[in-house]
Amino acid sequence: MKKAMLALTALALLATSAQARTWDEIKKSGTIKIATEGAFPPFNVLEGKKLTGFEVDLAEALAKELGLKVDWTTQPFDNLLIGLNQDRYDFVIASHGITPQRAKAVDFSNPHYCTGGAIVAKPSGPMMAADLAGKSVAVQVGTTYLENVRKVPGVGDIKTFPKDTDAQAALMSGRVDAWVGDKFTGIDLVKAQKGKVKQGALLFKESIAMAVKKGNSSLLKELNSALDKSQNNGTYAKISNGYFGEDIRCRN
Ligand code: ARG
Fold first, then answer.
1. Going by CA atoms, what residue is nearest to atom 11 of ligand 1?
2. 129 alpha carbon – ligand 1 mean position (Å)
3. How remote is the CA of residue 142 from the centroid of ligand 1, in Å?
4. pLDDT digits (tens, 9 = 90+) for 201-217
5. Considering the domain 115-205 in this protein, what is its CATH number?
6. Are 156 and 244 in contact (CB under 8 A)?
7. pTM confidence score
8. Ligand 1 neighbourhood includes 168 CB (under 6 angstroms)
């Protein structure tokens, strides 16, 4: 019994003391390992075997700028930062909003876009935060949408889904009164549903960034400089315009 416990402790120590690959190690290998979810259109989507989306194209452009090939991994959203801390990949790009809680577990790059969480409902449904009182709301689990919907005074039942697209489906099938999700995703949902649903108020704003393992400052520096370059040489604007018809970088 005691032995087994000791072995477990040793494993845990090994797992936490493993080193993330530094920039030099990544550069030498020639390939950077990136993780995303692949179920969050139009940011990261797995279509058959092909990953696409704004963040996928952007990450590919950054890797190209850094002279690296890309090895992609897809993981359920809720597992992404855990896998990062287990050194299963070098960084994560999956629309993570920078929050104080997440910043305790990982290090964030400069933001690669700015957005917010917005309400979508049937045209007769809740459109403002105050309208959510007593209403049921669908959100993806582990997200800032969940965190912020919980803060709405008097909000009714909050239903969580492993995938954001399933939370949207719950709205469309009438299982909930509203869905709260990314404002750009919401715009696409309204278009695709041809007026069956409508976008309401923005509940909160957030800055979205890539995550590296805590302390991996050499990689963070390279990612930030590649992002900077892409924003100065037109690459970023071109990718963003292709998906959104506008440049969604953060501006203050
Ligand atoms: N922006 C939200 C957050 O920070 C949602 C991100 C969801 N991303 C995804 N790939 N499903 O939590």
1. 40
2. 20
3. 8
4. 999 999 999 999 999 99
5. 3.40.190.10
6. no
7. 0.92
8. no
